[in-house]
Amino acid sequence: MASKIAAIFLRGQRGVGDAVHEEKGRDIYDLLWYMAKKVVPDLDYLVAKKINVKDLRALFDKLTLQMNKVNNTNLKNDLTPLFVNRTFIDNWLKNWRKSYSRLLDDYKINTVKNLTSVGVGQDFDTDNISFIYTYDTEEGRAVRIRCIISDYWIADREGNLPTETNDKISQLAANDMKEPLSDKLKQYVTLFYNKIEAYFKKTNQVMLGNSVSTKVIRMTADNLNQKEQIVLNKSALLSCELDDLFK
User: How confident is the model over 160-168, as a mean pLDDT?
Assistant: First the structure.
């Protein structure tokens, strides 16, 4: 999605005379497709492309202004030859601005404030372990970030971490559990908390949607589902950023 947003901002003028325009129809079409999937744009990519946005809210504000510059005639000329189903693309062209506004509203942009709870639990069908961090927001909603690991990280010695436990956060998690957390689980609670806080610092405390989840973080690659799972070693897990792990 970020590459499409970058293209919309950076593609530059095309055409000659009165038929000069800044957009390519396929970029706009693909953008709305990604928005319908609730894909979160990669801010690091956009910053690397020198697009000046401080957070996701600022990005969508800038994008909305750019959408007002889109030429409908150019959009039609670009997109119509790409589709066999003329009725479909005619309807899309007639409604795309309304669709953009609706999809933007559906993103539910939140400004995160304080961590209110941490939940740790195990799915006994898969044995995966989830760490669920709940924050309150300026909008009065609760948002949740779920980090998921396979049980091998806890059972295997390779999963031992050098992470220093944050006692305050670990206590918050312990208060949410029926049984005390092991020292190893406390390390993972702290590890993911640190990644979440670094992510919110990077996004200026802004989060899209009311919940987000990482892929299942695995140590082994057998029967890997790349859409839902990611394989890391300990070094990669320690060094990666939170958004590297998102679905």
Answer: 94
